[in-house]
Amino acid sequence: MKVWTIANQKGGVGKTTTAVTLGGLLSLWGFRTLLVDIDPHGSLTSYFRYDPDAIEESAYSLFQAAAGKTTIDPATLLYKTGTEGLELLPASVALATLERQAGRMDGMGLVLKRAFESLAGRFDYVMIDCPPMLGVLMVNALAACERLIIPVQTEFLALKGLERMLHTLDMVLKARSLPLPYTIVPTMFDRRTRASVDSLRVLRDTYGEHIWNGVIPVDTRFREASKVGLPPPVADPRGRGVEAYSSLLELLMSEPRPMPASGVAR
Ligand SMILES: Nc1ncnc2c1ncn2[C@@H]1O[C@H](COP(=O)(O)OP(=O)(O)OP(=O)(O)O)[C@@H](O)[C@H]1O
Ligand SMILES: [Mg+2]
């Protein structure tokens, strides 16, 4: 079972869209896939028409059990998405309370890692959608995954956010025994705008080998797919955006040990 994390401390860069699109593609390609929502806002959970304000069992239950030193079978927390082979471990708003509580408790950084160990035979891929902030949830995701995907919107404000994210990664990697390869994915690219073209050039010049050599274009079909609650590849398999994510996924799957990163490129 391969676990990938999708994270960036900047909001609105396409993290949830990346998670639901890669997850949708993986399931269409025949891989048993789990989407994990650890954002207290629960965008991915709402995507599939579950209510993060009302949901009873969620990723929060794992942390609650760990805090109470009890155990819970993560398989009892999984929900259907309506797409075959694609399941959801949802978020609930209660996740927001963890940042205050869990920071003071030992052993709360490996809650997700342990949960995935017990789900190992059940899925081929796990995609974790992170909240746009550093905290115990993102630390859990980074400790549990073997690959990190960092979506970055192609605009200048996003470049600063990326620097911050890589700084965070640097700190977290120091606490990890294994290296964590990461891939920066330029999103919402619009070749007609100067901001997109120029910021992409800066990204490529600055992050060299860590940046995917394709781009995810601006595509209104992502928003339309979210309106009907279907993963974009299911709603519109031949959309431009979906095709771009397919080439990204092919590349990521073809690299068993993608980049020999044990630190962060500057
Ligand atoms: N390539 C794209 N083209 C057009 N719209 C997009 C694209 N990617 C994402 N969007 C839209 O942009 C908005 C933000 O995307 P998304 O929710 O994936 O970002 P996020 O990084 O998860 O945000 P947050 O930090 O709030 O969790 C959504 O309305 C989504 O439909
Ligand atoms: Mg999101």
UniProtKB/TrEMBL annotation:
Q: What is the lineage of its organism?
A: Bacteria, Pseudomonadati, Pseudomonadota, Gammaproteobacteria, Chromatiales
For this protein, the record's CDD domains field holds: ParAB_family
Q: Which InterPro entries match?
A: AAA_dom, DNA_Partitioning_ATPase, P-loop_NTPase
SUPFAM superfamilies to which the protein is assigned, alphabetical: P-loop containing nucleoside triphosphate hydrolases
The protein's name in its UniProt record: Cobalamin biosynthesis protein CobQ
Which domain of life, per UniProt? Bacteria
Signal peptide per UniProt: none
Give residue ranges for domain AAA. Answer: 1-174
Organism, scientific name: Sedimenticola thiotaurini
